[in-house]
Design a protein that fits this description.
alpha/beta, Rossmann fold, seven-stranded mixed beta sheet, 8 helices, about 20% strand
């Protein structure tokens, strides 16, 4: 059974995720940077850096949220970036940021479902997902859809939370994520369940080689698995198989 944010709700995971992000959208950026101590910005830069050798790429940013990764990807000098997200409220915040930075000619935001992309086959040079794949209702379906819209040989970068395994950081992180993070997140966002869901979803996610197997089963070849900050996050770098 998949982990969901609202335990008493009868709605499916996808609908709950949409509602959750709609609820926390106004405080999302503030809490994201506060609760990660700003380290998430470094992780995003490293993820984007893996795509630096693609000239003028057409990029797809799945689960774009408020557009942080899409905006960071401007360093690649892309010809176009499409950011897609399930939450309309998150996209509203993202659109305001993009307009303020005068990036509307390059970055366009689309309200849509990662597991049923409103996009044509073999369209993008690369795709990215930051902290989004663990929210997929059907992981294989979401990854397969991303593979479908990428060109053969196109690169795919996933940045996702993971669980530290070494002492003492493992125990420090477990205490922080299960006790401190839900309290602070709930205080500022008024949705404690959203920040209780975060560590639960990380614990349930098939990280490391288990996720590499999911990638390979969906049409990708793994190129690199890069742990970040004692294993708090992991960057998965792969490419669409050329058949």
């Amino acid at each position: 059974m998949s982990v969901t944010p609202y335990k008493t709700s009868e709605e499916g995971k996808k609908k709950q995720i949409e509602s959750m992000f709609d609820n926390i959208a106004p405080k999302y950026d503030f809490l994201n940077h506060l609760l990660s101590f700003g380290i998430d910005k470094i992780w995003r830069r490293r993820a984007i850096g893996l795509l630096k050798n693609i000239p003028s790429p057409v990029l797809l940013d799945i689960a774009t949220g408020t557009g942080d990764l899409a905006i960071a990807a401007m360093k690649l000098k892309p010809s176009k970036i499409v950011g897609l997200d399930l939450s309309a409220e998150m996209l509203k915040v993202g659109q305001e940021k993009i307009e303020k930075l005068n990036l509307t000619d390059t970055i366009s935001l689309v309200h849509g479902d990662s597991e049923n992309l409103p996009l044509s086959d073999n369209q993008f040079d690369a795709a990215t997902v930051a902290f989004g794949v663990r929210n997929f209702e059907n992981l294989n379906k979401g990854l397969t859809e991303i593979c479908r819209v990428l060109k053969p040989g196109a690169k795919f970068v996933v940045l996702e939370f993971s669980n530290p395994s070494s002492f003492p950081f493992k125990h420090i992180y477990q205490f922080y994520s299960s006790k401190i993070l839900p309290w602070w997140g709930g205080l500022f966002s008024k949705d404690k369940a959203a920040y209780e869901y975060l560590p639960e979803s990380v614990a349930a996610f098939p990280e490391g080689q288990a996720f590499v197997k999911e990638l390979e089963a969906s049409g990708f070849t793994s190129l690199k698995v890069w742990k970040q900050t004692f294993g708090v996050a992991t960057i998965y770098f792969s490419e669409k198989k050329v058949q």
